[in-house]
């Protein structure tokens, strides 16, 4: 190894060390940073409607709130109309009761529910109150509550993630699930570039090996993305799989690249295989861009930032999420390129040992759907603690999948090393 190669090797290992540090930082930020307070649910417990108006009693269920010590005040709001609640009683830090009085005519049938306290600041629940039994009139005007709105307590919290209704603790999956697709996109981009160079160089075998190595590792991340996304969807949207263009596009993309490996296994001529698979790969990457980047933005999608579902403002603006998400993406990408280099080493060793003959390799993971049946106890466990077990499940799938890949790769490298040693001994004798 000359001096230039030694310097390059040190740089590569330095980058890999940075990647491992970023992943350690990602895991810390995923599980150690607390979630901010919010309202999980609002329930009407009693209503008494007469000709003069209505009196409604409701219960508010918070998550990570401090109702007992924050002296909370509750109010309803729709645009400029504000209705303060009375008889506010905190049963515990996450549960309180209150009463709301409304006139017979109201400007809107539904109102957002707000709770303001000394520590939590203001938390809200969209359309949490419905004025059942009252009449809606555009001319109805409620008394202004300027004093109430002017004396709202600011939040007094440390570094935390924003609370999103329904998502809650599972917002942490942003650092686990989403980088799987970023890493897959990077690896498929590497494969795309190598396929172009393969065609430009008349079917260069080394560039072809680089392309297939990148696809194999990228598929692994794609499958992990599908599995973790399915688990997250089950406890956010209520189903393991929904008719969403982003989900369907991701599945089709994984199948397209699985077809790439099938195509390679069906062609015996090495030169022909490299050229045809390179052409297929070019179209596959273009399809990936269309299905995952273009199409979801022009169709209705459940994913934030796509189609008729704009991104959550807290996703875009919250500094805590940015501080965790960007390093996570970079760390997972570095790990993905490291895995790619090991897979490339395997492909090269196989070609040397088998004298450039076609080798068949198994798919990185078998595609399967999570079983539709589930026990009530499992459902309750995943939904408990603000859906924190969903984050744990996603992390277990990713870590388990990566451990499986590393075990498979280490064994392959060991077997190839033994075969190379035997070949060398044979040549010497």
> Mean pLDDT score, rounded?
82
Order of helices and strands: HEEEEEEEEEEHHHHHHHHH
Q: Please tell me the total number of domains.
A: 2
For the largest sheet, list the strands in their spatial order: 1-2-6-5
Helical segment tally? 10
Task: Give the CA-based shape.
Answer: elongated
> What is the CA-based Rg, rounded?
28 Å
Low-confidence stretches: 307-311, 313-317, 356-375
Structural class given helices, strands, pairing? alpha+beta
Distance between the termini: 28 Å
- Sheet-strand content, in percent, reads 15-25%
Quantity of strands, as a count: 10
Tell me the major beta sheet. 4 strands, antiparallel
Q: In which range does the helix fraction lie?
A: 40-55%
Overview of this protein structure:
This protein has 429 residues and is an alpha+beta fold. It folds into 2 domains: 293 residues, no CATH class; 110 residues, Immunoglobulin-like (Sandwich), CATH 2.60.40. It is 52% helix and 17% strand. A 4-stranded antiparallel β-sheet has the order 1-2-6-5, with no helix packed on it. It has a 4-stranded antiparallel β-sheet with strand order 4-3-8-9, with no helix packed on it. Helix 3 crosses helix 8, helix 4 runs antiparallel to helix 5 and helix 4 runs antiparallel to helix 10.
């Amino acid at each position: 190894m000359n001096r230039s190669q030694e310097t390059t090797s040190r740089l590569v290992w330095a980058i890999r060390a940075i990647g491992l540090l970023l992943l350690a930082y990602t895991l810390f930020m995923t599980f150690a940073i607390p979630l901010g307070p919010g309202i999980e649910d609002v329930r009407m417990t009693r209503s008494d409607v007469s000709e003069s108006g209505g009196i409604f009693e409701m219960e508010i269920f918070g998550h990570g709130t401090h109702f007992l010590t924050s002296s909370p005040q509750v109010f309803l709001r729709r645009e400029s109309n504000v209705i303060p609640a009375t008889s506010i009683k905190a049963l515990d830090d996450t549960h309180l009761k209150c009463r709301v009085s409304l006139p017979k005519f109201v400007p809107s049938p539904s109102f957002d529910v707000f709770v303001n306290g000394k520590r939590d600041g203001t938390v809200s629940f969209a359309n949490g109150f419905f004025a059942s039994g009252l009449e809606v009139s555009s001319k109805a005007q409620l008394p202004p509550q300027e004093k109430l709105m002017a004396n709202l307590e600011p939040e007094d919290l440390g570094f935390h993630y924003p609370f999103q209704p329904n998502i809650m603790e599972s917002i942490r999956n942003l650092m686990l699930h989403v980088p799987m697709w970023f890493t897959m996109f990077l690896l498929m981009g590497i494969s795309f570039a190598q396929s172009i160079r393969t065609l430009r160089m008349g079917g260069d075998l080394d560039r072809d090996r680089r392309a297939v190595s990148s696809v194999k590792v990228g598929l692994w991340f794609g499958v992990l993305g599908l599995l973790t996304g399915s688990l997250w969807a089950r406890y956010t949207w209520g189903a393991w799989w929904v008719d969403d263009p982003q989900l369907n596009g991701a599945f089709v993309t994984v199948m397209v690249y699985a077809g790439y490996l099938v195509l390679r296994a069906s062609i015996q001529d090495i030169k022909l295989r490299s050229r045809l698979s390179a052409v297929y790969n070019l179209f596959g990457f273009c399809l990936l861009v269309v299905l995952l980047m273009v199409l979801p933005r022009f169709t209705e999608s459940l994913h934030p930032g796509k189609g008729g579902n704009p991104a959550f403002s807290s996703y875009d603006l919250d500094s805590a999420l940015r501080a965790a998400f960007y390093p996570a993406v970079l760390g997972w990408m570095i790990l993905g390129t490291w895995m790619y280099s090991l897979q490339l080493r395997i492909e090269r060793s196989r070609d040397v040992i088998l004298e450039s003959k076609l080798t068949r390799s198994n798919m990185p993971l078998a595609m399967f759907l999570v079983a539709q049946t589930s026990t009530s106890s499992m459902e309750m466990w995943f939904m408990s603690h603000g859906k924190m077990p969903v984050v744990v499940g996603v992390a277990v799938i990713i870590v388990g999948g990566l451990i499986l890949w590393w075990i498979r790769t280490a064994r392959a490298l060991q077997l190839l090393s033994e075969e190379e040693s035997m070949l060398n001994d044979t040549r010497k004798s």
